[in-house]
Amino acid sequence: SFIALICKELKLKFKCYTVGIKNAPDLEYALMLANSLNIDLKLKIYSLQEIEEIVKNVVKLLKSTDVTNVAVGCVNYASLQLAKGDKIKCMFSGSGSEEIYAGYERHLKSLEKSYKEAHEECFNGLSNMWQRDLERDLKLSKHFKIKYLLPFLDKEVIKKSMKIHPKFKISKDSKKLILRGIAYDLGLKKEIAYRPKKASQYGSSFIKAIDKITRRNGYKYKADYLRSLR
C-alpha cells in the first residue's frame, strides 16, 4: 500500500494486483485502497480447482513441500501469473519492510527482553531473508520472466533504517510504527496504514483453500498432501 501511495504521488503509470479466494480480507483492503487513491487494480478471486493447479506448479518449481513456503509461493505465483497476462515486465514487492521496521511477532517477543534484542532480531531477519524468502520469490519471478524490484532492500534504505532507534519502530501495542506513521501522514487511510500484519497466505485465504484441497484429496495434514505432489 505504501509503495502504491508513493507511485501515485510520483504520478507514475502502474497497476496493482491482488489475489485471494472469496471473502479473503486482502480483497477488501485492496478495493478500499484502490478507491481511496483512485489507482488501477486487477483483482482475481480463485476457485479451489485453480489453486490446486497453482499448488502443483509451485511445488514443482520450488522443489519444496514446506507448507509456509509453498503457501506464500502460491500467492506470489498467482500475482505474477496475472501480471504476465498483462505483459508486465517489472513488479514492486514490499519484501524487507518487516525486517527493517520490526514487523513480525518475533520482534515483539524480542522487545520483551530489550530494545537491543529487538534491533538484533531485525539484523537476524535480514541475514536470513535469502534462504527464507528471496530465493523462493526470485525462482517464481524468473519463471514468469518478470523482474522483482525491492525498494525496502535498497542498500541506502537499509543503512538509514537500521540507524533508527527501535523505539520508533515497535511498541508492545504495534509494529512498524514509523512506516505506518509516515504512510498515514502522506495520505494513506488510517484503516490501511494501521491494519495489523497479516501474512499473504492468510490475507489471501490461500491457506484455507489448501486446507480444503488437502482434505478433498484424502489427507489430514497439508504437509502430507504436499509431499504426495513431489
Summarize the structure.
Helix content is 59%, strand content 8%. By secondary structure, the protein is mainly α.
Coarse morphology = globular
- Tell me the strand order in the biggest sheet: 1-2
- How many whole angstroms does the radius of gyration measure? 18 Å
Average pLDDT for all residues: 96
What's the N-to-C terminus distance?
36 Å
Structural class: mainly alpha
Sketch the major β-sheet.
2 strands, parallel
What would your notes on this structure say?
By secondary structure, the protein is mostly helical. Helix content is 59%, strand content 8%. It is built from 13 helices and 4 strands. Strands 1-2 form a two-stranded parallel ribbon. Helix 3 (48-62) packs across helix 4. The protein is globular.
Spell out the key features of this protein.
two-stranded parallel ribbon; 13 helices; mainly alpha; 230 residues; globular
Outline the fold blueprint.
Layout: H1 2-9, E1 15-20, H2 25-37, E2 40-45, H3 48-62, H4 67-85, E3 90-92, H5 97-100, H6 105-111, H7 115-143, E4 147-149, H8 155-161, H9 177-185, H10 190-193, H11 200-203, H12 206-216, H13 222-227
Parallel strand pairs: 1-2, 3-4
